[in-house]
Amino acid sequence: MAMAMRIRNAASRRAMSPISGDFSLRSMSSWWKNVEPAPKDPILGVTEAFLADPSPDKVNVGVGAYRDDNGKPVVLECVREAERRIAGSSFMEYLPMGGSVKMVEETLKLAYGDNSEFIKDKRIAAVQSLSGTGACRLFADFHKRFRPDSQIYIPVPTWSNHHNIWRDAQVTQKTYHYYHPETKGLNFSGLMDDVKNAPEGSFFLLHACAHNPTGVDPTEEQWREISQLFKAKNHFAFFDMAYQGFASGDPAKDAKSIRIFLEDGHHIGISQSYAKNMGLYGQRVGCLSVLCEDEKQAVTVKSQLQQLARPMYSNPPLHGAQIVSTILGDPELKSLWLKEVKIMADRIIGMRTTLRESLEKLGSPLSWEHVTKQIGMFCYSGLTPEQVDRLTSEYHIYMTRNGRISMAGVTTGNVGYLANAIHEVTKSS
Ligand code: PLA
After folding, report:
1. Among 159, 166, 337, 368, which one carries the catalytic annotation?
2. pLDDT by residue (tens digit) across 127-167?
3. Catalytic: 166?
4. Are residues 143 and 218 in the same domain?
5. Closest ligand 1 atom to Cα of 134
6. How far is 34 from 177, CA to CA, in rounded Å?
């Protein structure tokens, strides 16, 4: 009883105090009054709009997520088998800050080559990252911390999130020419001029293969010239390799740009992702590596990468890393993976041909040669934002407003519908 009285008295004292009642509610609700809604993400926002559309005809060629020919998400057979093998393991401990050592070891081989001297000499500082995005962000933070006065040169156009990543890491961004809208190909001379005119020792972001969004890559010869010019200018090359295997169907071939830079003696950085080539999108598994002068420097750099990771997310997730190391650590599963990557890449290449042929059969007055010339997951169609808006509002076809079509979402079932809609919105242009 006495206890109940004491509680009631305390409650009424609180009600009378100036920090209680309406006043405190008002001040609490005003904490975030200056916060404006964030703009929709140009890629993931498209998925949100697609999901909200009840139309049975809807088609999502927005985000770069692979679908089989029935439009269904794919879990690779090698991944299913790896999952079966690790199912018995009840290991749930934290990974080290730098992630799974085994996964990182296997991942480096894919980028630097199975017999890479740099791996043997332990010259690579590498950590498991939260997929490709996390690798880019970790590198951007590392860049800011240790080379705070230098800038990053980013191609025009690029994956929209690159700008967000280096912005949030507070690294000053510059751009370099990459794409030629008239030829729908590479603006090689513009690119070389920008590389030449950048201050010595600048940082450049390069897409290792299957450039997003354009699907346009330099040829091998052009990569050699770019590498030579980088040498002359002492520039740093940071490769974002989010689509290894998706360009040619062969991960070793798709690492050619990187291998050229390595042969030429560059000390590069690489972001690798298993989202697309192993279909591990939501597992968030990737790797950031930085090639150093020697083992001692690599140990030091790795310690700093870990130091950056620790206050952000402490250590990376376990399950995806187990899947990757199980697959790549077993020759049979690895060769199954290579076959499956090729199947995905070939299906996309096939859809490019069908899309182009369908547009030509419809009598489109425009050239669609670029649809088959471009490589990787995306077709940079040349559709204007207004034409894309019409595709969405009249045909329930969802894609980014820059006219990028995720070819991975095109199937035998929807390619005719897509071609017809594209024809309808472009025929008078
Ligand atoms: N780098 C490039 C060039 C990418 O296109 C993407 C993904 C990433 C990194 C990051 O991928 P990850 O973090 O999932 O490994 N681009 C997608 C998805 C496929 C996205 O925007 O997040 C795209 O549709 O462009």
Report:
1. 159
2. 999 999 999 999 999 999 999 999 999 999 999 999 999 99
3. no
4. yes
5. 13
6. 37
In-domain check, residue 339: no
**Best residue among 212, 271, 405 to mutate for probing ligand 1, ranked by most atoms within 8 Å of CB:** 212
Q: What domain range is 423 assigned to?
A: 43-75+344-427
203 and 319 together in one domain? yes
CA–centroid distance, 269 to ligand 1, in Å, is 18
Residues 126 and 272 grouped into a single domain: yes
| Ligand 1 binding site (Cβ under 6 Å of any ligand atom) | 43, 63-64, 131-133, 159, 161, 207, 212, 240, 242, 273, 275, 281, 286
Ligand 1 center–CA 7 separation, angstroms: 56
**Residue 32 resides in a domain:** no
> Cα separation of 125 and 165, whole Å?
21
Q: Is the pLDDT of residue 22 over 90?
A: no
How far is Cα 208 from Cα 155, in angstroms, rounded to an integer? 12
Q: Residue 122 corresponds to which amino acid? A: K
The first and second tokens of residue 179, run together, are: 């794409």
Ligand 1 pocket test target in 40, 107, 133 with most atoms within 8 Å of CB: 133
Q: In this predicted structure, what is the pLDDT of residue 28?
A: 65
pLDDT tens string 255-273 = 999 999 999 999 999 999 9
Same domain, 60 and 187: no
- Final residue of a structural domain among 282, 299, 329: 329
pLDDT tens for residues 5-17? 554 554 445 444 4
Stretch 386-415: mean pLDDT: 96
- How far, in Å, from the CA of 111 to the mean position of ligand 1? 18
Q: Can you read off the two tokens belonging to residue 414?
A: 């929807």
Answer with the one of 300, 329, 358 that is the final residue of a domain. 329
How do residues 319-346 score in pLDDT, each as one tens digit? 999 999 999 999 999 999 999 999 999 9
* Residue 294 appears among annotated catalytic residues: no
Q: Which of 141, 194, 217, 240 is catalytic?
A: 240
Same domain, 307 and 380: no
Domain co-membership, 203 together with 325: yes
339 is catalytic: no
Q: Look up the CATH number of the domain holding residue 121.
A: 3.40.640.10
Nearest CA to ligand 1 atom 16: 64
